[in-house]
Amino acid sequence: MEPKFVISGSGSINGILCLINYSQSNTIVVLWNPTTQEFKVIPTSSFEFVPHMDVDILRHGFGYDCVTNDYKIIRQVVCCQKLDIDVLSLGNIDDDQFWEIYSLHSNSWRKLEYDIPLNHKDNGVLLDGMVHWWNESDDVDDEAYLLSFDLSTEEFVTTVAPLEDGSLDLEFVLSDLMVLNGSLALISNYPNLGAFQISILAEFGVKESWFKSSFFGLYLSLCILLEQEGKGIYSLRKKMDN
């Protein structure tokens, strides 16, 4: 069976796509230019094969570093002890979660010294030289937030989620990130209300800079598309069906 690839992040970056195949044995990453038909298979990381550990690649982000003229891939890696291994014979082996980054210039991966959990499984959205993920926790007491990674400085920035209206039924909310008119937008879908809301971020790292639109009502059987320059870019129905 041929491997099935998904496109990472926001799609084409300077005509180049980052294609990912999440297989059980190893993760295959390919950079591909559909116009020239050129492609490059990204080498595997040394962290993908850790003795006595199951390695899971949770998510990727792909973008261009304009400062160093380099294409980079960032991803989160989780290592867990294999269940069929005798724990006593191995001693104390802790689970590990970390980030690593690939540089096309060096053609290699390296580990980043950051311990930042990420609980949302979507691939990153690229904007202004930064890869962005929406982070949600299963713990209702934890705040949701935007996690952004600067491809040039290789540093993370967090932006706490916009405040919710306490009068709303927020028991079940579907959230997704997108680029809308050159700005980062959070689409919040409230199935219990039959409505959705758009929040635009003006400044990364500043919680108060979220601008929230009015609520938009909808019929759940319809396919709702937000458009930018005449192109459909977000399907609410697709998000709800996942």
Automatic annotation (TrEMBL):
Residues forming the F-box associated beta-propeller type domain are: 13-210
Q: Pfam family of this protein, just one?
A: FBA_1
The record's section on PANTHER family has: BNACNNG10540D PROTEIN, F-BOX PROTEIN CPR30-LIKE
- Protein name, entry field: Putative F-box associated interaction domain-containing protein
Q: Which organism is it from?
A: Medicago truncatula
